[in-house]
């Protein structure tokens, strides 16, 4: 899973230093925008969220909830079964308001693709009393991290797939600076407005949709409005793993799907995963995910 690091040409550690021909201007250190070829879908990242995806709009409808830094459409990871007590998060920490504790190191984009690099903040401030057991470790009840950030980097590329309208390729590479016993890489978590209350799973073998309950499973998942006019779902060539990998969760004021890869053990290094995200009507999303699963090799990059 060790990957080659491309050289960045637009850096933000000291502000926007360069604008090259063919690349989008350095908008507010991470406020980037890309569009599908048919202009039907617009995706934006937010500087205040360290470059995490803060908006996906189709036909004037917003698909992403941004009411705190744990929502959005973003990547995260937690280690050693500690859950949120050891949880680098792309968009920032639980206590962030406005600006992010994560540090955006670089960003660039073209008309239909974007790339960002962020030093991810831990979800909890150092030493925070969690108030309950941390993840699956009942003996631990406070944050494990001793600093706001600690070199857990996320290199992300998001691009519309040519010839497949409404399909996004989401490539996340995590730099893990020290060894861990285990990791749960939440390659993408999509937090969506409550209007996307309908839950679906896609049986790839039969090409059929089935209504789904909450929880994790082996089938790609889709969230949709009840009339099916707006939907977003995900498939990954890395999944499933032991009957799981895709999740659906409802909260009182937001709904979620995610694409999760688990690793044991986790030597220090770079871990790269890819998920495909489809946006459109429920029928569009079903067709796009089936096409992605047929086109792209399983287990590969």
Summarize the structure.
This protein is mainly β. The chain has a single domain (33-295), classed as Beta-galactosidase, Chain A, domain 5.
From the 3D structure, determine the CATH topology: Beta-galactosidase, Chain A, domain 5
Q: How many angstroms does the end-to-end distance come to?
A: 10 Å
Number of helices: 1
Taking pLDDT < 50 over at least 5 consecutive residues as the criterion, the unreliable ranges are 1-26
Q: Topology, please?
A:
Blueprint: E1 33-35, E2 41-45, E3 53-58, E4 61-62, E5 73-79, E6 88-89, E7 103-109, E8 113-122, E9 149-160, E10 167-176, E11 183-192, E12 198-203, E13 208-211, E14 215-217, E15 221-224, E16 231-235, E17 246-250, E18 255-263, E19 269-280, H1 282-295
Antiparallel strand pairs: 1-2, 2-3, 3-4, 5-11, 6-8, 7-8, 8-9, 9-10, 10-19, 11-18, 12-13, 12-15, 14-17, 15-16, 16-19, 17-18
Any overview of this molecule?
The model is unreliable at 1-26 (pLDDT under 50). This protein has one helix at 282-295, and strands spanning 33-35, 41-45, 53-58, 61-62, 73-79, 88-89, 103-109, 113-122, 149-160, 167-176, 183-192, 198-203, 208-211, 215-217, 221-224, 231-235, 246-250, 255-263, 269-280. It has one helix and 19 strands. It has a single domain, classed as Beta-galactosidase, Chain A, domain 5, CATH 2.70.98. It is 5% helix and 41% strand. A hairpin with a 4-residue loop joins β12 and β13. By secondary structure, it is mostly beta strands. The strands form three sheets. Strands 6, 7, 8, 9, 10, 12, 13, 15, 16 and 19 form a ten-stranded antiparallel beta sheet that branches. Strands 5-11-18-17-14 form a five-stranded antiparallel beta sheet, with no helix packed on it. The chain is globular and about 45 Å long.
